[in-house]
Amino acid sequence: MFAVLTGDIVNSRATTGSPWLKGLKQALSQYGASPQDWELFRGDSYQLIVPAQKALEAALYIKACIKQQAPYDVRQGIGIGDRDFHAPRITESNGTAFVHSGEAFEGLGKNFLVIRTSDPQLNQALEVMTELAGLTIDSWTPTTSEVIRLKLERPDANQTKLARLLRKSQSSISDSLSRGGFSQVMKFNTYYKKALETL
Asked: What proportion of the chain, given as a percentage, has pLDDT over 90?
């Protein structure tokens, strides 16, 4: 089972140039190679394919990377399903994961994230959870985003290690993780991965 993330950059034209582009490419490269696993299109949009279990974490990681630079943000639709045709370029591949991803992205509205599967009841539960998570995640500051990005990159690192890597105090790391709702977001990720077992 695969997940396809379709996303775009919010406020991509807020400044001249594309200062968010390097961070986006670095984030996507954590999950594969271009153009087979990810690809940019229309200037500020992207698609990424990952194992379904990794999709929510990938979406959060991409968001943290982009939100390090104000005023940029991302909107993302995750589609869970199959990949029936594996083309050399992800944007030429197809399957239910791609269909669901397109539906999720088109249904974003004001939400930062929508997840679509073949199960309507699961979709409804995930929609409520993503909307609640968005109340915190959409408010991540650049500082909070930087800490959460590093924590996602190094899940086993304690706060002291993160503080040393970012040259910050341990208390500031703790505050950022708390303000960013990191513990609660990871509980959501655990629920999401468990829920996929029912598909």
From this structure: 91
